[in-house]
């Protein structure tokens, strides 16, 4: 039996995200990771570095906010307070040189280049951001750059109000985009959608003064939600949501597991949906304060009711269908003049 279109799409999405995480065939020269205060991109960066170590790729970590060198990083570069020219030269010195031998011989070493925050560059030199990123991307090098979407960005006065925002430029340059969110937050949003309620806000979106409450891991368990947007060479965009169960940083090194978000038990559609069964309807009405359904006895009683003026609905002759039959009562006052009119 041939696989259905739905199963083919699921398999294609899983293979594509595995290809991105494993840095196969330079699937994405520039991958943009968008995170928030509520959910950091650290689990995804650890997943990239763990898989790069398994494939024996060199990992170069450029730090603007990270203090300590990550466990799976081969090179750790402190980029704060460095000019773009000096930073570009230091990164180039650690990147493997392009192979001058034919492709049939031993393959050249791959490199994973990670920038933990693009916000300082976007704030200090937004006009040079695109040229800087293009200059450090070399054949065999995959660049993973993180941008914090909820951190206020103060642009220099030299930037015109008509120039595009740095995030707009980064989204245009990136060949793949990962939007990171918390699994517990995604579950709360899904529950609100199922009940046709307004979606809740979290973190800075709540607009509350005081202490910012971070991640909530009540019943969601470990894992983060990845919303992937992949731009193919043909110009077609592929979008899908995944659940990443990253490996614990204190555990032995190793890759985590990734699956479609729709496979999570709390995101699965009811089994009876779309099959005309009454079981799914009963599940949806369990939380309702009233029930509009009819029992078998009520349904039979409704079918046996004779509607008033039922005889008028019978066509007794040409043009007489729909006529109104009215019997005058004792209290009715018959007016001959109105009858003549």
TrEMBL record:
It comes from Coniochaeta pulveracea. This is Elongator complex protein 5. GO terms for molecular function: tRNA binding. Its main location: cytoplasm. Belongs to the ELP5 family. One of its GO terms (biological process) is tRNA wobble uridine modification. Keywords: Cytoplasm, Nucleus, tRNA processing. Pathway: tRNA modification; 5-methoxycarbonylmethyl-2-thiouridine-tRNA biosynthesis. InterPro entries: Elp5 (IPR019519), P-loop_NTPase (IPR027417). It holds the Pfam family Elong_Iki1. GO terms for cellular component: cytosol; elongator holoenzyme complex; nucleus. It is found in: Cytoplasm; Nucleus. PANTHER family: ELONGATOR COMPLEX PROTEIN 5 (PTHR15641:SF1).
């Amino acid at each position: 039996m041939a696989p259905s279109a739905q199963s083919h799409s699921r398999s294609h999405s899983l293979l594509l995200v595995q290809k991105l995480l494993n840095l196969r065939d330079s699937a994405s020269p520039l991958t943009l990771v968008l995170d928030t205060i509520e959910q950091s991109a650290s689990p995804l960066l650890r997943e990239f570095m763990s898989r790069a170590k398994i494939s024996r790729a060199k990992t170069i970590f450029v730090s603007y906010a990270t203090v300590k060198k990550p466990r799976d990083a081969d090179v750790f570069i402190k980029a704060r307070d460095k000019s773009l020219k000096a930073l570009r030269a230091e990164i180039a010195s650690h990147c493997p040189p392009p192979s001058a031998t034919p492709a049939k011989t031993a393959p050249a070493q791959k490199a994973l280049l990670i920038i933990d925050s693009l916000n300082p560059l976007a704030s200090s030199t937004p006009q040079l951001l695109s040229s800087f990123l293009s200059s450090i991307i070399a054949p065999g090098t995959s660049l993973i750059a993180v941008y914090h979407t909820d951190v206020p960005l103060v642009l220099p006065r030299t930037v015109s109000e008509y120039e595009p925002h740095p995030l707009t430029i980064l989204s245009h340059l990136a060949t793949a985009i990962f939007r990171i969110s918390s699994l517990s937050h995604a579950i709360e949003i899904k529950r609100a959608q199922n009940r046709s309620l307004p979606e809740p806000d979290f973190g800075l979106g709540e607009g509350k003064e005081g202490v910012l409450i971070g991640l909530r891991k009540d019943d969601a368990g470990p894992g983060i939600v990845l919303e992937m947007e992949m731009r193919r060479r043909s110009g077609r965009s592929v979008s899908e949501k995944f659940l990443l169960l990253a490996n614990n940083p204190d555990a032995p090194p190793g890759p985590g597991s990734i699956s479609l978000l729709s496979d999570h038990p709390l995101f699965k559609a009811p089994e009876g949906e779309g099959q005309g069964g009454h079981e799914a309807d009963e599940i949806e009405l369990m939380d309702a304060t009233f029930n509009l359904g009819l029992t078998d006895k009520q349904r039979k009683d409704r079918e046996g009711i004779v509607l008033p003026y039922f005889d008028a609905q019978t066509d007794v002759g040409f043009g007489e269908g729909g006529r109104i039959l009215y019997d005058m009562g004792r209290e009715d006052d018959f007016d001959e003049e109105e009858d003549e009119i």
